[in-house]
Amino acid sequence: MAKTIGIIAIKGGVGKTTTTSNLGVILSKEFNKKVLVVDANFSAPNLGMHFGIINPEKTLHDVLLNRADIEEAIINHSENLHILPSSLISRKINPFKLKEKINFIKDKYDIIIIDSSPSLNEEILATMIASDELFVITSPDYPTLSTTLRAIRIAKQKRTPINGIILNKVRGKNFELKLEDIEKTAETSVLAVLPDDLRILESLSLTNPAAVHFENSNAVIEYKKFAAALIGEEFKDKRISYRIKKMFSRTIPKEEINRDIFRAR
Predict the structure, then answer these.
(1) DSSP conformation class of 188
(2) Are the C-beta atoms of residues 135 and 108 closer than 8 Å to each other?
């Protein structure tokens, strides 16, 4: 049975969909896992666009309205990566049927990744209920952190564990919140620190995730390390630049320590 992972944030623009799409590519391609990515942002879906899917014939909306079986709405991006898009314009649906519909196909995949709505409504609650575990996306600033804290509190109320924070769009500036301060405030470990990378934006224009076109970029390598931790494995960064940096560094990044702990659980 697939492990269902929810990617959440109560703020748009922090990288939820980008993270979902890149993890899907990496887990299917790099680690040979059978992966389904699901667009559960019912009001403003765009996961399909990250893969060049503009006007799908059947969507998750049709599934939730009982107008199509879930397998009819799934699109094969590659042998190991499938996509379940949602509709840009559709009738109102009951998002709480999401878990029920996904349960029909859990035995066909190793991992199912759900891209949630960024709004605090029944849509994000549906992702929380449908997921076995959750990861929260945030950026190193106070407004985003405040919404992250709220997401963590709600997830605890719904009894779906928050397994970690993904810290995105990090520029390495002194005015940014420090990883340690974010962990202390959120009482949750940071498992990935993603640099602000223009190639992430460039990949959107190419209608494919960055992991397809820029697999050795800093952001994609960090995604690979996080993806490996999700399945209890370790990704070895073989880049010369990384090995040189590691030789002269006296400390191990906190997120790497956190991933080791996460893998050992």
Answers:
(1) S
(2) no
Secondary structure class of 166 (helix, strand, coil): strand
Q: Structurally, how many domains does the chain consist of? A: 1
What share of the chain in percent tops pLDDT 90?
Answer: 76
The DSSP string of 15-30 is: SHHHHHHHHHHHHHHT
**For residue 180, which phi and psi values (nearest 5 degrees)?**
-60, -40
Cα pseudo-dihedral 101, 119, 225, 76, rounded to 10: 40
Q: Which residue segment(s) compose the domain that 64 sits in?
A: 3-264
Q: Cα 212 from chain centroid?
A: 16
The C-alpha angle 133, 139, 141, rounded to 5 degrees, equals 130
Q: What is the pLDDT of residues 118-145, one digit of tens each?
A: 887 888 999 999 999 999 999 999 999 9
| Among 28, 44, 231, CA closest to 119 | 44
Map tokens 């600033």 to a residue: 141
Contact, 135 vs 168, CB < 8 A? no
Distance between CA atoms of 5 and 67, rounded to whole angstroms?
26
Kindly report the CATH number assigned to the domain that includes residue 211. Answer: 3.40.50.300
